[in-house]
Amino acid sequence: MRRAWDSDLGWSFRHAPVAVVSLVVVTILVLAAVLAPLIAPHDPFDPATLNLMNGFSKPMEPNAFTGEVFWLGTDDQGRDVFSTILFGLRISLFVGFMAVAFAMLLGITLGLLAGYLGGWVDTIIMRVADVQLTFPAILVAMLIFGIAKGITPPEYRNEMAIWVLIFAIGLSDWVQFARVVRGATMVEKNRDYVAAARLIGRTPGAIMMRHILPNVLSPVLVIATISLALAIIAEATLSFLGIGAPPTQPSLGTLIRIGQGFLFSGEWWILLFPAVTLLALALSVNLLGDWLRDALNPRLR
């Protein structure tokens, strides 16, 4: 731990106030999501604990009927907005992390194959990537989500909605990983250590996984950090449009969609607090990604 703190990356982090603040914000939000069942004042999705008389309670003001006080107010069902944000944050982070992990796995695998094998394998993979890049990622995700949900049996659609969402976002985001890994692999495969591995009889799979992969991961980590913010925003966009997380497992995007319906009737807090949470999360992750990209760029040292 001490060695990492004294490294060039640790020094760069200590002298980047924006990165420090961003990491603190991300850590707080992740811990709040993980510990949501323990720190949430109420279980907002347990009908037995809801009281419709608490509906539309203003933040930090006693309810006119029950006298209860809620930090961030309540929605039309009497659900505590603070508790819904904590549970919604869990869904958004889970979808974001899993979608990026899936995109990384697919993109790194295809990038290694394209860069190392070349020929018709490289041509096919890169042409598919070029075609996908001609469409906005959110439209690709919507198309994949619609197809995947359509072939899912109706009785399992709500249960599988989160996994279908992860699959759709991940499949729409693999291209940038594949392109970066392919370029780095094409450089690394001509190095002496790769030639030495071939001479001693290493298989192409072993060379790619044990020799080339560790040397192409630095840019992948930067892309993964930035892609996490984009995946969270993509999930929120799909859920806001009503084609993402189901009502039984609402994410921040679902909460924003619900709050938008009450904005013009004066219940601003139902929309504002989930939106601010999403903004803080996406902005902090993005700023961390920007710092990591600069810190790992040898030209800026």
Q: Could you please describe the fold and organization of this structure?
A:
This protein is mainly alpha-helical and 301 residues long. The chain has a single domain, classed as MetI-like fold (Orthogonal Bundle). The chain is built from 14 helices and no strands. The longest helix has 37 residues, at 81-117. It is elongated and about 80 Å long. The chain starts with a helix and ends in a 6-residue tail after the last helix. Residues 89-289 form the ABC transmembrane type-1 domain. Pfam families: BPD_transp_1, OppC_N. This is ABC transporter permease. One of its GO terms (biological process) is transmembrane transport.
What CATH architecture do you see?
A: Orthogonal Bundle
Computed structural class? mainly alpha
Q: Give helix % range.
A: 55-70%
Cα end-to-end separation: 23 Å
What is the string of SSEs from the N terminus onward?
Answer: HHHHHHHHHHHHHH
CATH superfamily: MetI-like
Number of strands: 0
Tally of separate domains:
1
What is CATH's topology name?
Answer: MetI-like fold
Question: What is the gyration radius calculated from CA atoms?
Answer: 23 Å
How many DSSP helices? 14
Pfam families: BPD_transp_1, OppC_N
Domain ABC transmembrane type-1: 89-289
Protein name: ABC transporter permease
InterPro entries: BP-dependent_transpt_permease, MetI-like, MetI-like_sf, OppC_N
